[in-house]
Design a protein that fits this description.
Shape: globular
Number of domains: 1
Oligomer: single chain
Structural class: alpha+beta
Radius of gyration: 11 Å
Largest sheet: 3 strands, antiparallel
Strand content: 25-35%
Order of helices and strands: EHEEH
Number of helices: 2
């Protein structure tokens, strides 16, 4: 986790879709971000936590994810 990542979103991601989330963050986040794997995807969705340095990036991520 980044030192100043006070904003986070925990989401379930189906197998093969993590790269879509990472690509979106690389293209759209203005500040630093990272993610952590809580439970790998397999037959069921995996649980991942995305951390954001900026509240704006977190809100944009949540709105895009819907």
């Amino acid at each position: 986790m980044l030192p100043d990542t006070q904003y986070k979103a925990e989401i379930g991601i189906m197998f093969g879709n993590l790269s879509v989330m990472i690509d979106w963050c690389q293209q759209h986040c203005e500040s630093n971000w990272c993610y952590d794997i809580k439970d790998l995807a397999g037959k069921n969705p995996g649980q991942y936590v995305f951390f954001f340095e900026s509240e704006k990036d977190l809100v944009n991520f949540i709105l895009w994810k819907k």
